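TA notes, week 10

Several of you asked for a full example with nothing omitted. So below is the full record: structure tokens for the whole chain, then the designed sequence directly under it. When grading your own attempts, check the secondary structure regions first.
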């Protein structure tokens, strides 16, 4: 059975990313035959630019990079669950992606964003970066609009079933597409 890694893109102290990621993983399990594991970037403190080589051509020397490489290499596909910050995605997510290269290459991915404006600009930027890694990306990129007051409240709490009930269909579509991307292309 394929292993799908759901990556939480935010490491802020008060965040709703873990709650949303667990909810997305539940939808994924109900939609496609795969094992879903949630990975919190807060548990993967990867210092900026501490590898002496270039990930695309050199090996890794840092133990944390080697461990991150093993985590990512063991996955068949990824679901990036990330907030939109200032029209982009968080620096820790970019850093986690840039720490590696071949471990991402050619694998399937889905992008699910959230924020006061949903996250479409964040998704577009992330899609471009993942495309540069030759990842195969689900066409549907759900952008979950936070309820009015959620951003200002910054409570770190949310009930996704209530706040995003209308988005379950698009998340299911993204998961169906992710599942299709896991299958090898058919020769015509």
């Amino acid at each position: 059975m394929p292993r799908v890694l759901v990556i939480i893109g935010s490491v802020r102290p008060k965040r709703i990313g873990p709650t949303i990621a667990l909810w997305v993983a539940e939808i994924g399990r109900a939609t496609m035959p795969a094992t879903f594991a949630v990975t919190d970037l807060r548990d993967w403190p990867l210092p900026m630019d501490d590898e002496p080589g270039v990930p695309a051509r050199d090996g890794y020397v840092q133990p944390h990079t080697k461990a991150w490489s093993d985590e990512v290499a063991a996955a068949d596909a990824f679901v990036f669950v990330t907030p939109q910050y200032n029209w982009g995605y968080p620096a820790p997510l970019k850093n986690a992606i840039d720490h590696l290269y071949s471990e991402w290459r050619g694998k399937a991915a889905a992008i699910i964003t959230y924020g006061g404006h949903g996250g479409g600009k964040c998704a577009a930027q992330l899609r471009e970066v993942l495309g540069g890694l030759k990842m195969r990306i689900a066409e549907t990129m759900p952008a979950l609009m936070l309820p009015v007051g959620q951003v200002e409240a910054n409570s770190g709490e949310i009930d996704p079933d209530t706040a995003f009930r209308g988005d379950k269909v698009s998340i299911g579509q993204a998961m169906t597409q992710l599942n299709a991307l896991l299958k090898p292309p058919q020769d015509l």
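The beta strands are 3-8, 35-40, 77-83, 108-115, 136-137, 143-145. Use that as a sanity check on your answer.
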